[in-house]
Design brief:
Length: 201
């Protein structure tokens, strides 16, 4: 099912419809401030397993990240953030970044990596953040399966290709072609893992 949500003023009833789909274990394809991504509720194990089947990966090895509403939401899922780390996150978020942090106890076991870390995003995208706010907890985010191609920017084409694998495809306009910048904050010094859409000093 393809639904059109306004990118600047998302229709509340549609946002509620998406949140209900997620609460009932559904999977969506939704826009972020970088690429369109696969998403589900982080507490719906069967939905996480479905995403991993679509991507043909194990949950712990899938490089899945969380999309949070804001910094206070984010801090529930990461262990005590040191002041300099918090300041850095505050400076860069919302934005096209994925920060790897030490996972808190609130992160479902299925999603923790062997190193007990979690990738967290606060995208600069109104639709994504409205969905998270309505849901009341983060959504799991994963890239679309297969090699990335230009056509993954068009929700109509995404729907033709993947619509039968998910419960809902959200059309929030044309997406980007560059993934998020990934920074690892679990070591003494922040480490740039992947250079993407966000600039990193």
């Amino acid at each position: 099912m393809l639904i059109h949500i306004h990118p600047v003023n998302p229709q509340q009833r549609l946002i509620q419809q998406v949140a209900q789909t997620l609460k009932h274990g559904g999977i969506i394809i939704y826009p972020t401030d970088t690429l369109y991504g696969l998403g589900c509720d982080i507490f719906q194990h069967k939905a996480i397993e479905r995403i991993c089947r679509i991507k043909n990966v194990q949950p712990q090895k899938a490089n899945l990240s969380f999309v949070c509403y804001d910094l206070s939401d984010l801090s529930n899922y990461a262990k005590q953030l040191q002041t300099p780390v918090y300041r850095t996150l505050k400076q860069y978020l919302p934005g096209p970044y994925t920060f790897i942090l030490e996972a808190s106890k609130q992160v479902p076991k299925l999603l923790k990596t062997k190193k007990d870390t979690v990738g967290i995003r606060v995208p600069d995208n109104t639709i994504a953040r409205c969905i998270v706010k309505e849901l009341g907890n983060p959504i799991l985010s994963a890239s679309l399966p297969g090699e990335y191609v230009e056509e993954y920017t068009d929700p109509e084409i995404i729907n033709e290709k993947f619509g039968n694998l998910v419960d809902m495809v959200i059309d929030g306009g044309i997406g980007g072609i560059v993934p998020s910048t990934i920074i690892d904050f679990t070591k003494d010094e922040p480490e740039l893992i992947r250079e993407g859409a966000g600039e990193w000093e």
